[in-house]
Write a structure and sequence with these properties.
Number of strands: 9
Strand order of the largest sheet: 1-2-3-4-5-6
Distance between the termini: 35 Å
Helix content: 25-40%
Strand content: 35-45%
Structural class: alpha+beta
Largest sheet: 6 strands, antiparallel
Oligomer: single chain
Order of helices and strands: EEEHHEEEEEEH
Radius of gyration: 22 Å
Shape: elongated
């Protein structure tokens, strides 16, 4: 079963959440961000090239124009390959673990897998960010040295920064999968 919901990020931008239910113990959440805006790309490129042309008229050195074109192209490729994330995916499988995947605008993907034995809980946390309180979903990892301790907090959907209503949807589904596993593992 698959459905798609529309939410917004902390800046008011639109996000699309696709929920896929493969089985009662396996769910996937894909949070899609807006694509790169052609308007903003054109504005940045034109402003850099106009500044370079202004320097060219003052210095009369053609290397300035060549450098501006080169820097713009390298900057755009770097932005698309290392910064701009189009989609973030959270796949949770009860008996196996949690996989987080980030898909960049250039097509590159970055995947992190956490074994279910290391997962203590999935929670919604809050933080102060630019004079605002924002909420984020994170995975708490067990501390191997201390049974009740937490060794690490792994944030989810770092790039998209969805609002609380979106996080609650994902949180509830994650708890439906994690809660039966906790009940059976804590019983003697």
């Amino acid at each position: 079963m698959e459905d798609e919901l529309s939410f917004s990020d902390i800046y008011g931008g639109r996000l699309a959440l696709q929920r896929r239910y493969y089985s009662p113990s396996c769910r996937e959440f894909c949070l899609s961000c807006p694509r790169l805006s052609l308007r903003s790309l054109t504005a940045v490129t034109c402003s850099v090239w106009l500044a370079a042309y202004g320097l060219f008229t003052l210095c009369e050195n053609s290397m300035i124009l060549s450098a501006a074109i080169f820097i713009t192209l390298i900057g755009l490729l770097g932005y698309l390959h290392f910064v701009k994330i189009d989609q973030e995916t959270l796949l949770i499988i009860d008996s196996l673990g949690i996989q987080m995947t980030s898909s960049y605008a250039s097509g590159k993907e970055s995947t992190t897998f956490i074994e279910m034995g290391k997962v203590k809980d999935v929670i919604i946390n809050e933080a102060i960010y630019m004079q605002k309180v924002i909420y984020y979903l994170c995975i708490l990892l067990n501390d191997p040295m201390e049974p009740n301790g937490i060794s690490q907090v792994v944030p989810v959907f770092q790039s998209a920064k969805p609002r609380l209503d979106c996080l609650i949807e994902v949180y509830r589904s994650c708890q439906e999968i994690l809660a039966p596993g906790k009940a059976t593992s804590t019983s003697p």
